[in-house]
Amino acid sequence: MEELKKVKRVISKELPGAPHEILLVLDATTGQNALMQAKMFKEDIGVTGIVLTKLDGTSKGGVVVRIAGELGLPVRFIGVGEGLDDLRTFDSKDFTAALLD
User: Hey, what long-range contacts does 55-59 have (CB within 8 A, 24 or more apart)?
Assistant: First the structure.
């Protein structure tokens, strides 16, 4: 975590106002442990959003509902495969429909 804090400091020295966005990548299969990870990263380095990966399997990633509610962190992108084209902008309506399916 200290290394990430250092990276953030160096970036903000080189480019005032940076970083503009700090995304935490979470594996959808992590489950409730993801909430603790998000809390730690938000407190320590100021995470501003979530990328949720591995939604192509059986995991539905419901933990992000709790993360968004408790921590106010929006989901920016989802990963539904291994290719570059499999990273998609998060759509709450599609996500909710898949969660309830």
Answer: 55/28, 55/79, 55/80, 55/98, 56/80, 56/81, 56/86, 57/28, 57/29, 59/28, 59/29
